[in-house]
Fold:
Amino acid sequence: MNDPIVSVTDLVKHYGSNTVLNKINFEVGAGEVFGLLGPNGAGKTTTLECLEGLRKPNGGTLQIAGCDPQTQEHSLRSLLGVQLQSSALPDSIKVSEALQLFCSWHGVAQRDDLIEKFGITPFLTKQFKQLSTGQKRRLLLVLALVNSPRVLILDEPTAGLDVQSRAQLHDEIRRIKQQGITVLLATHDMAEAEQLCDRIAIILNGKIAFSGTPQEVTAAGNGQTKITLRTAHGSLSASEAFSGTTFVQEKEGYLEWKTRDVAEAVTQILGKVKAANDTVEDLRVERPSLEERFLELVEGN
Structure:
């Protein structure tokens, strides 16, 4: 990891008698995409709101590029860009007016480059309420970037988007990273986190249950790898036993096993297929997905 640009140390947040965050710790390197994952109510948004200076922690220290979000609000404004889960923009505000408002607040000139890059021009004269969900997300991302922030916070940026709009926004996030901007991404979408994030932290019950690269998180599970097989003549059946494997299911001509010793299991399975004078039509060896590992952690807490 590069030198940390975001640092969260022993972050604690209470709402009355309810402890939402219980000594959260993580660091984010410059130019990194860092994901915060967790079920609803886990504390992802509260963590981000403390970093944004919107909520006051009950304990711990926070820093963004050496700035304390709780005491240096003016400095934070130039360092940070934020796309919230929901917009506070008035329904009747025009897109051009929203852009002028945010540029004026940050003391920067109109960002025609961002308008062009994100394809905002065709709906500059539209009111916010007239935009599609995808157009609203693009606009909110532009508004978060008008001050050329060093750190960008995205809270569920693709929620409610169709597949094409999600893919477009993912491409934009990758381009933002290439510009050296650090991204903090809170998401429920495991595939999104797996594709975009350099590292992730999974928050459960107000604590970080696991952190690391998506590959490290999936590798730290129960160690089971999935083997899926379909043969031309269906010579194998669910009753076939292979040492070190557990049969999972038979579905639409596919047989599925889980094992910790992939090489031995595949060798045994292919040996049986060959002995039966059958041929392999499809063979897949898959490590657990981030979603499967996430569910494993959630169910274990």
